[in-house]
Amino acid sequence: MDIREEFDKLVEKLKSERDNLQLKAHLASMDAKDELKEAEEKWNQVKEKAAEIADDAVETSEEYIAKAKIIGEELKETYKRITQRLSE
User: Fold this and answer.
1) Do 48 and 64 form a contact (C-beta atoms < 8 A)?
2) What is the pTM of this model?
């Protein structure tokens, strides 16, 4: 095999790897967008609950605050997953 054939094989392999990476990046991006959309719903819940908890006129129980905290922790984990997915 001459050097030109070796180079042609290298170029084909690189092209294949590049195409594969582009597809994976695109799919990861789509997954991240979907997960981020779901995270926005949780974010809105957290903001709403935080406003209610901060409002002295509204009676909030420890259970209500604990549930709000759980949603906040779930959102934190979701953001972490999205960040990891985008950095891969």
Assistant:
1) no
2) 0.62
Which residues, including other chains, have CB under 8 Å from residue 45's CB and lie 6 or more apart?
Answer: 68, 71
C-alpha–C-alpha distance, residues 84 and 76, integer Å:
12
CA–chain centroid gap for 19, Å, is 23
CA distance 48 to 85: 28
Q: What are the extents of the domains in the chain? A: 3-87
Report the percent of the chain where pLDDT is more than 70: 94
pLDDT in tens, 40-72: 888 888 888 888 877 777 677 888 788 888 888
